[in-house]
Design brief:
The structure is a single chain. The chain is globular. Strands 1, 2, 3, 4, 5 and 6 form a six-stranded mixed β-sheet that branches. The N and C termini lie close together (8 Å). By secondary structure, the protein is an alpha/beta fold. The chain has one domain: 3-Layer(aba) Sandwich (Rossmann fold), CATH 3.40.50.360. A hairpin with a 2-residue loop joins β3 and β4. It has six helices and six strands, in the order βαβααββαβαβα. The relative contact order is 0.22. 34% of the residues lie in helices and 22% in strands.
């Protein structure tokens, strides 16, 4: 059965290396017959969370920007994929801001069960993504019906396009194609 997959590319750079991972994953999921939407945060206006918790009462954020519609798409998806560059051993600020703004999901019934995490970094060493994975696992812990279903890391990629030919692209594609 086809699943609804939302891929959130959080890099502030258009045509970034993490965006290429997002596209590879999405292409794999499409090849398996799933419905896929890629959301690029670089194209969106997303303000910081104010911590007012009005979303707990209203079911949606009171800030009128692009975040509430993205939050709805996350909540309706069967599969959520986060793609980010690693900055200072963590997810990029745009990703964290979107996670904070999706706070309204905490009081709603959500569809997603599988969450994937894709990341890139200039540093080539394994484990560069460990703290960022921990951040995603913290978000997932707030949604007990969901789980971290997989991760892909591409190290040693800095300038846009450096990821071309990197083995992580094939891993991301295969991971997307393996969604059941």
């Amino acid at each position: 059965m086809a699943k609804n997959v939302v891929v959130i590319s959080t890099s502030p750079r258009k045509n970034s290396n993490s965006d290429a991972l997002a596209v590879a994953f999405a292409d794999g999921a499409k090849s398996a017959g799933h419905n896929v939407e890629i959301i690029r945060l670089a194209d969106k206006q997303i303000a910081f969370c104010r911590g007012c918790f009005a979303c707990f009462k209203l079911g949606s954020c009171v800030i009128k920007d692009d975040a509430p519609a993205i939050t709805d798409k996350i909540g309706e998806a069967d599969v959520v994929v986060w793609a980010t560059p690693i900055y200072y051993y963590e997810m990029c600020g745009q990703m964290k801001t979107m996670i904070d703004r999706a706070n309204a999901l905490w009081v709603k019934d959500y569809a997603f069960r599988d969450v994937y995490f894709l990341s890139t970094a200039a540093e080539p060493h394994e484990g560069i993504d460990t703290r960022a994975i921990g951040g995603v696992e913290g978000w997932i812990a707030c949604f007990p019906k969901s789980r971290l279903a997989g991760t892909v890391f591409a190290g040693g990629v800095k300038a846009p396009g450096d990821i071309e030919g990197h083995e992580a692209l094939a891993k991301a594609y295969a991971m997307g194609a393996a969604i059941e």
